[in-house]
Amino acid sequence: MGDDPWLGPTTRHTVWPDRSWFVFGSHSSHGRINRIRFIVRNFTPAEVAAGVAGVGKLPLKQVIHRRVCYLIVGGVFGSAAFVEKSMGVMSIFRALTVLYVRPLQSRLLQVMKNSSFPIHTPENAPEASRKLLLHTRENFGMVPNLEGVMAAAPALLKSYVSMWDGFENTSLTPIERQIVYQTVNFENTCNYCVPWHTLLSRQAGMSEGDIDALRSGSPLADPKHEALRLFTREVVMQNGKVTAAAISAFFEAGYTRQTALEVVMGIAIKTMSNYTNSIAGTPLDAAVEKFSWKKPLADGSA
Q1: Quick one: DSSP state of residue 4?
Q2: Contact predicate 181/197, CB 8 Å
Q3: Nearest one of 120, 125, 106 to 281, comparing CA atoms
Q4: How far apart are alpha carbons 219 and 179 in whole angstroms?
Q5: Residue 109 Ramachandran class (φ > 0 left, ψ -120 to 50 alpha, else beta)
Q6: Which domains does the chain have, with CATH numbers?
Q7: 3-class secondary structure for 252-289?
Q8: Which of 130, 254, 277, 282 has minimal Cβ neighbours within 10 Å of its Cβ?
Q9: Residue 23 β-bridge partners
């Protein structure tokens, strides 16, 4: 292939829908910078994302090759002014690698996951999952995407729905059940479940202060509730191997051996949902988009 007079030396063409062509790969710094200019001036971030998704013919490792990442990241997050004012192509690449390549890789993986795990409805789900999805719709007024994804494995969906219903019949109050659920969601960094349990915590009558505390992994106002949160977190973080001191503190707060085992049940329920969402990249439902969540950093920033 020849050199493009404006874009610089080219090595391979990749066709994008509704555009003439776009070039991936170049061995010249001039070509790389001009390609970033070309992306910024001619493609919206949505189109760049669509282009990435359209590179299905390339292996993922090749798509995430540093030159391809460099071009895509420049188009989505950069600007012509930023590129022109930077100290050089390699310094730009190093900075972008630290700030953006990993998030970009995560987005690419999520696109691929979403295409691999369909969201079923009662109408198109496997036969064994249809009644379970109808039951879920009766409880929630809709079929959340989580259950729609789980429907591909009827045994998983049946276990999840059954245990969810069973947890409602434990000795834990509605607020305490949400404390267990949301603590597990936080520790497992489940961006799908935290928004849903923000809504469910409100419906259970939890205070806004405690809702925010659970979303940030902070102490709860009520000492007994805080003891429940700490015990749940300890069980999750230690894989069940909690110390005698942790169990003693839990009992001293007013809980019993029964409630300790019920916490295990709540953790099991959330493990099924958290892990499913992590593997499948379950998209957040519109019903809880306003509660979208990103795990805060250790210093308290998002």
Answers
A1: B
A2: yes
A3: 106
A4: 11
A5: alpha
A6: 13-116 (no CATH), 170-291 (1.20.1290.10)
A7: HCCCCHHHHHHHHHHHHHHHHHHHHHHHHCCCCCHHHH
A8: 254
A9: 13
117 token code pair:
């795990």
Cα 145 to Cα 286: distance, rounded to the nearest angstrom:
10
Rg (Cα) of the chain, in Å, rounded?
Answer: 24
Confidence (pTM): 0.64
Strands (E), the chain: 13-14, 22-23
Residue 223 near residue 250, CB atoms below 8 Å: no
Question: pLDDT in tens for each of the 302 residues of the chain?
Answer: 444 333 344 433 343 343 333 334 444 555 545 555 555 555 555 555 555 444 444 444 444 444 444 444 444 444 444 444 444 444 555 555 555 555 666 665 655 555 579 999 999 999 999 999 999 999 999 999 999 999 999 999 999 999 999 999 999 999 999 999 999 999 999 999 999 999 999 999 999 999 999 999 999 999 999 999 999 999 999 999 999 999 999 999 999 999 999 999 999 999 999 999 999 999 999 999 999 999 998 655 55
Residues 6+ apart with CB under 8 A from 49: 76, 107, 111
Q: Kind of pairing, strands 22-23 and 13-14?
A: antiparallel
205: helix, strand or coil = coil
- Report the C-alpha gap between 212 and 194 in whole angstroms: 11
Site of tokens 């169990």:
247
Cα 23–Cα 87–Cα 68 angle in degrees, nearest 5: 25
